[in-house]
């Protein structure tokens, strides 16, 4: 009988073009992405909202968090279009990174490739959508609301 | 408790492709500071070795350097806060001396960026941000700072022309600094000339000319207690104030996109400790890793009101002859930015200025100088105030 291989929950390696993390307590984030949902967490005790999601609340020093869906629209805080990319991201070029402000929390991500640059305006309302990358990885992108 | 003084400063030339190993590179800055202080290795009680990690094959460089520089068996350790590593080193050296634990401490900063390719370097630098949630989107330092530039332009009407003026100033002084990696002039017109490399896009709105030059280099600052400083040095420069702060690594955790809160907070602390105001600063070194970073520093340090940083550069107020000379050694933009060596090099510049030994770059009779050194995208910030 061969040794039984220990199962490793490394779902997070699917996040983004290249993921630098494979194991995290918020691995369910990936399952939600597969269901088309972008999720943050909220502390059940103090109500603090976390995006990106966290397993732990530093205010209450516990891990009593629940998932909530990033829904509705956020305001575009700023963005930049990259003409050069770090190693591993060259095939994605050009692409825009951006931050959306949802009020209770902000979301860092990319703007959808099909939004023309001349239509991108700081302050515009955008929504966060799940996106499958050509290499099968999952991330989320911002589209015009 | 007495004052803490700087008795020796040195740096290597900042170059592309240093033809030697990292311990040999560290020797260059160390040699300069030791010759400046005119002390022996046994006079140094401890050393702090500072760099951003992951550029070298060598793990734990402190022990290797201490041996190579003749600083054993004294204690040594490695310290990092990305691009602000060696000003963090100065703060720790200050506290080691202030506490009375050591009399004389050497802070040695270094970085050999050419160990890896430029794209690999961007990837390493990008991983100084949030690797779990941001790096998978393909982030890099110019793009992060570009987002601040965009936000500043939207809110205050700052223009690409304003930013170009900052690079032109840096190049003015880079040309006369024999330690600078980029010694060529940069003209305002180059930014609108498609044939000029300066105008090439990197991450909108920033262009090649808005970005600092990668370099290999080392720096060294030797710190001593008041008694030793007075005994060993003819012209000690005193550490009047130190401030430091941190901020959310993920930009999603930030509220300010038109400035760096770490610089504001570190500046407030340093001014308070030194008992001075922004108006008292006669010469400053700020962390101009990108042109927008210098403009934000003007505002975050109180040299200009929020949104009015552009007026300082347009009026040439930050030139050598201006109201508040900034980066008159070429800054990171032209002198170069060997990450772990940068803070120590900035401190060296201000020490030379306060001693009246800055040569062609000398500002007229400065009494109080300031160093602003940032790690990551405003992740860490150190502000140090020095005086004669």
Give a written overview of the molecule.
The complex is a heterodimer of chains A (145) and B (388). Chain A has 145 residues and is mainly beta. Chain A has one helix at 28-34, and strands spanning 39-43, 49-50, 65-69, 74-82, 95-101, 106-111, 125-132, 138-144. Chain A starts with 27 loop residues before the first helix and ends with a strand. Chain B is α/β, with parallel strands linked by helices and 388 residues long. Chain B has a domain at 4-117 and 214-232: Thiolase/Chalcone synthase (Peroxisomal Thiolase, Chain A, domain 1). Helix content of chain B is 35%, strand content 18%. Chain B contains twelve helices and eleven strands. In chain B, the strands form two sheets. Chain B has a nine-stranded mixed β-sheet with strand order 3-2-4-7-1-8-11-10-9, with helices on both faces. In chain B, strand 10 (368-375) and strand 11 form a beta hairpin. The interface between A and B is large, with 41 and 39 residues.
């Amino acid at each position: 009988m061969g040794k039984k291989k220990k199962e490793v929950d490394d779902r997070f390696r699917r996040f983004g073009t290249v993921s630098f993390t494979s194991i995290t307590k918020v691995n369910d984030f990936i399952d939600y992405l597969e269901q088309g949902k972008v999720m943050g967490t909220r502390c059940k005790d103090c109500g603090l909202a976390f995006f990106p999601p966290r397993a732990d609340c530093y205010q209450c020093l516990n891990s009593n968090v629940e998932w909530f869906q990033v829904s509705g629209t956020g305001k575009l805080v700023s963005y930049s279009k990259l003409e050069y990319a770090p190693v591993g991201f060259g095939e994605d070029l050009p692409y825009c990174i951006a931050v959306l402000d949802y009020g209770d929390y902000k979301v860092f991500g990319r703007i959808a490739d099909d939004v023309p640059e001349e239509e991108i305006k700081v302050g515009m309302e955008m929504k966060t959508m799940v996106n499958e990358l050509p290499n099968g990885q999952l991330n989320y992108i911002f589209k015009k609301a | 408790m007495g004052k803490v003084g700087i008795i020796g400063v040195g740096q290597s030339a900042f170059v592309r492709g240093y033809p030697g190993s990292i311990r040999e590179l560290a020797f260059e800055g160390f040699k300069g500071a030791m010759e400046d202080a005119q002390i022996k290795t046994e006079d140094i009680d401890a050393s702090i070795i500072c760099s951003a990690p992951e550029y070298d094959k060598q793990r734990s460089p402190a022990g290797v350097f201490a041996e190579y520089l003749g600083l054993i068996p004294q204690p040594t350790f490695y310290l990092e806060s990305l691009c602000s590593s060696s000003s963090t080193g100065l703060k720790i050296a200050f506290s080691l001396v202030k506490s009375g634990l050591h009399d004389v401490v050497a802070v040695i900063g270094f970085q050999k960026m050419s160990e890896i390719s430029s794209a690999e370097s961007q990837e390493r630098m990008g991983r100084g941000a949030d690797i779990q949630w941001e790096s998978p989107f393909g982030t890099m330092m110019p793009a992060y700072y570009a987002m601040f530039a965009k936000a500043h332009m939207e809110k205050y009407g700052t223009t690409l022309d304003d930013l170009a003026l900052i690079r032109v100033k840096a190049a003015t002084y880079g040309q006369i600094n024999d330690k600078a990696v980029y010694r060529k002039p940069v003209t305002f017109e180059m930014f609108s000339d498609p044939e000029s490399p300066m105008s090439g896009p990197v991450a909108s709105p920033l262009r090649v000319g808005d970005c600092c030059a990668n370099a290999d280099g080392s720096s060294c600052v030797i710190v001593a207690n008041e008694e030793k400083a007075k005994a060993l040095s003819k012209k000690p420069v005193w550490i009047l104030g130190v401030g430091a702060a941190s901020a959310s690594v993920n930009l999603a955790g930030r509220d300010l996109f038109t400035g760096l809160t770490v610089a504001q907070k570190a500046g407030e602390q340093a001014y308070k400790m030194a008992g001075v105001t922004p108006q008292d600063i006669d010469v400053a070194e700020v962390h101009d890793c990108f042109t927008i970073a210098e403009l934000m520093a003007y505002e975050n340090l109180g040299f200009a009101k929020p949104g009015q940083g552009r007026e300082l550069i347009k009026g040439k107020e930050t030139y050598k002859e201006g109201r508040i000379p900034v980066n008159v050694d070429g800054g990171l933009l032209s002198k170069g930015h060997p990450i772990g060596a940068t803070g120590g090099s900035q401190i060296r510049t201000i020490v030379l200025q306060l001693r009246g030994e800055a040569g062609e770059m000398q500002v007229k009779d400065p009494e109080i100088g300031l160093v602003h050194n940032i790690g990551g995208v405003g992740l860490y910030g150190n502000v140090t105030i020095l005086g004669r």
